[in-house]
């Protein structure tokens, strides 16, 4: 055992798994506490509401005295000892999409234009939050009113709509220098109220835009002051636009590790200590992950653990899900994109048959 790590956030399984593979004794504070989290965590504590997270972290620290505390999504601003990640004073500007937009402008990186009220079409998005679940394109005043009625007085941005492939670059940063680890294609829900919600990734991104996204991402990471793992989201079309900065581990961790064969948690710790890889990792295969969602309100019957490692984020039998709620992750991999997606489709069909067709991707 190298040391004790506490990973805290809304969903931590992917980070806990990487830390375990790196040789750490791992503990977790997690909203879901799925079955496979406990494959890798010595102990985990669930929290129900965001306001409960900090108290759970304090309690776990008192119990287990971790050497390192790693924040995941939802815990980026935690003020804790032994932090292994971006300091809270550096995180704040990237938790607000308006200040992130201004950061892109200051660093000379193309980003969608902010729109004045009444200008359409417009991409509306909350200033805070991750995953893209409440983002929406509106085309007129009626669409704008529907969005604001649904989300109330939520502070938001109105941006020009840019077209292209949703993508991201994972970097390792020391606070002043950075190196890109992988370029990823992002999968989005594509329909309904959560059309722009994250639903998976493919690593590596295969396209001419990859090299320019790497250049932009490394510059952003260097200027951000972030340490450890940092993700930058882009839309890659006729022009590349930077969309968001995630100053923490990203949901693409699984596909990056499968594609490169490298342990990202170890690299994160080293970057926090000021050490970067001498060169970018090489992707030895293509890896894909997609999230499956409940096709209707349901109570999970079968124990899905037997389908591991084809799947992850495995809920417990008897868990209740509303229609459209994320249920689990499915993987595919192969020598190229077609092979990886064919395996992913095969594994999705296996899960759907096992579940009686109550899921969709």
Concise account of the structure shown:
With 361 residues, the protein is an alpha+beta fold. It has helices at residues 13-21, 37-40, 53-64, 88-91, 97-106, 141-151, 210-224, 253-260, 264-272, 337-355; strands at residues 4-9, 25-30, 41-46, 68-71, 122-126, 136-138, 156-159, 165-174, 178-188, 198-203, 227-236, 240-246, 286-294, 298-299, 311-312, 320-321, 326-334, 359-360.
How does this structure look, described?
This protein has 361 residues and is an alpha+beta fold. The protein folds into three domains: 4-84, 3-Layer(aba) Sandwich (Rossmann fold), CATH 3.40.50.20; 87-282, D-amino Acid Aminotransferase, Chain A, domain 1 (2-Layer Sandwich); 286-360, Aldehyde Oxidoreductase, domain 3. Helices cover 28% and strands 29% of the residues. It has helices spanning 13-21, 37-40, 53-64, 88-91, 97-106, 141-151, 210-224, 253-260, 264-272, 337-355; strands at 4-9, 25-30, 41-46, 68-71, 122-126, 136-138, 156-159, 165-174, 178-188, 198-203, 227-236, 240-246, 286-294, 298-299, 311-312, 320-321, 326-334, 359-360. The strands form four sheets. Strands 8, 9, 10, 11, 12, 13, 15, 17 and 18 form a nine-stranded antiparallel sheet that branches. Strands 3-2-1-4 form a four-stranded parallel sheet, with helices on both faces. β11 and β12 (240-246) form a beta hairpin. The longest helix has 19 residues, at 337-355. The two termini are 38 Å apart. The relative contact order is 0.12.
């Amino acid at each position: 055992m190298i040391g004790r790590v506490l990973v805290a956030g809304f969903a931590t399984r992917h980070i806990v798994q990487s830390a375990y593979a790196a040789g750490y004794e791992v503990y977790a504070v997690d909203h879901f506490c799925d079955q496979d989290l406990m494959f890798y965590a010595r102990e985990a504590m669930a929290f129900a509401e965001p306001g409960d997270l900090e108290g759970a972290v304090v309690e776990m620290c008192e119990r287990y005295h971790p050497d390192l505390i790693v924040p995941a999504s939802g815990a980026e601003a935690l003020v804790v000892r032994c932090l292994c990640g971006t300091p809270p004073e550096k995180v704040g500007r990237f938790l607000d999409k308006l200040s992130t937009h201004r950061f892109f402008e200051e660093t000379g990186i193309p980003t969608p234009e902010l729109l004045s009220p009444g200008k359409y079409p417009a991409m509306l998005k909350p200033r805070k939050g991750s995953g893209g679940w409440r983002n929406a394109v509106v085309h007129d005043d009626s669409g704008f009113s529907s969005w604001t009625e649904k989300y109330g007085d939520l502070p938001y941005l109105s941006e020009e709509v840019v077209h292209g492939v949703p993508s991201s670059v994972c970097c390792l940063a020391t606070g002043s220098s950075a190196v890109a680890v992988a370029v990823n294609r992002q999968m989005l829900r594509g329909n309904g109220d959560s059309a722009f919600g994250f639903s998976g990734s493919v690593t590596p991104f295969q396209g001419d835009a990859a090299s320019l996204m790497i250049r932009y991402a490394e510059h952003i990471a260097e200027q951000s002051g972030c340490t450890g793992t940092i993700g930058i989201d882009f839309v890659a079309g006729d022009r590349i636009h930077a969309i968001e900065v995630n100053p923490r581990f990203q949901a693409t961790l699984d596909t990056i590790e499968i594609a490169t064969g490298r342990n990202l948690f170890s690299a994160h710790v080293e970057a926090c200590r000021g050490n970067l890889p001498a060169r970018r990792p090489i992707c030895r295969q293509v890896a894909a992950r997609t999230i499956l969602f409940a096709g209707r309100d349901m109570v999970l019957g079968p124990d899905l653990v037997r389908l591991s490692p084809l799947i992850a984020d495995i809920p417990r039998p008897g868990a209740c899900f509303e229609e459209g709620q994320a249920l689990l992750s499915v993987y595919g991999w192969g020598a190229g994109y077609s092979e990886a997606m064919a395996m992913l489709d095969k594994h999705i069909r296996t899960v759907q048959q096992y579940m009686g067709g109550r899921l969709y991707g």
